Amino acid sequence: MDDSFFDLNDEPEGVGGGVLESSMGGSASKVGATRTKQTNFSAYEDNVLCKSWLEISCDPVINTGQRRESFWIRVVNRYNSNCGRYPKRTQKSITNRWDHIKAEVSKFSGYMAEMIRSNPSGMSDADKSVAAAADFASVEKHNFTLMHCWKILKDEPKWMELKRKMDMLQNSGSRKDAPPNGHHILDLDAGNSAPSTSAPSSSSGKRPMGRDAAKAAKKKAAAASSEYVSKIHDLSVQKIELFKETEGERKARLDEIVTLEKVKVEEAREHRKMKLDIEREKLALEKRRLDMEAEKKKEEAEKKEKEEDERILAINLDQCQPLQRMYYQALQEDIIQRLLSRRQGPSQ
């Protein structure tokens, strides 16, 4: 059967199936010879039951003065008034379902506490709850299907108090004397309430722990605490050593990075210097080329000027017309004057 549902009418042997407890007054009423089977609890009904238990348990007015029967009558009344469209439940159905929820959620709380103590790195709270559910399924051989109940109960002081008492009862070995149906757990929840004479599972029937057993339990707890402190100290030392090693590796890595950066800067500087030298050489070559072109143009211009001067000087003025003779004669005189000036210039 799926753990999220609990057959409400499965009774221990010897209990008749034709009589159901009243959810309002606790009195029995006959519903016939045939057995009536109610539907399984849904997640919504589980939530209503958990909230009803918390509201009645945390009642500041009468919580410490109510007996077992009156307590569960109030829980049943609160549940049936808040269940909405879902069917109303009997007291037996609700107590059976609560015992199942309490047992399953208590087990899962242990797995979750162990997961929180181990504190795996990189895991969120949701991841831890998934991992705890996986551990639960692996050990208990069935899935944990009451996560919705655990989310309601996990942070409530009343539930944590009940869980602490259940753990103490389990650790002290009192479960050997407890009734097999688990109803003794409800008495733990009642806190300072008066014992009920009609409840066979009342805590008044339990034998208290003796002095020697109490001393032995105290020594055992002290030894476990000392061992735990020693383990914590060893883990702290290991973490410090690991931190030191990590710091050394980090410093070495930073030094290596600084060295690499220096090499990169030096290489970049050399590269820029090389580029500047190349640019200077390019500029020098370009200047030389321009100078050579200018010199060449100057030589070509002088050559043309010389050829033109020679042509003009070679003209026979006697064969020219009067106007042409006057023109070329003036040009020849300018050419001769320029030549004389060039020859006289360096000597002066």
From TrEMBL:
Residues 1-32, 170-218 are annotated as: Disordered. The keyword Zinc does not apply. Residues 1-13 have a biased composition (Acidic residues). Signal peptide: none annotated. Residues 143-335 form the No apical meristem-associated C-terminal domain. Residues 268-312 form a coiled coil. Keywords: Coiled coil. Residues 193-204 have a biased composition (Low complexity). PANTHER family: GLYCINE-RICH PROTEIN-RELATED, PTHR45023. This is No apical meristem-associated C-terminal domain-containing protein. It comes from Urochloa decumbens.
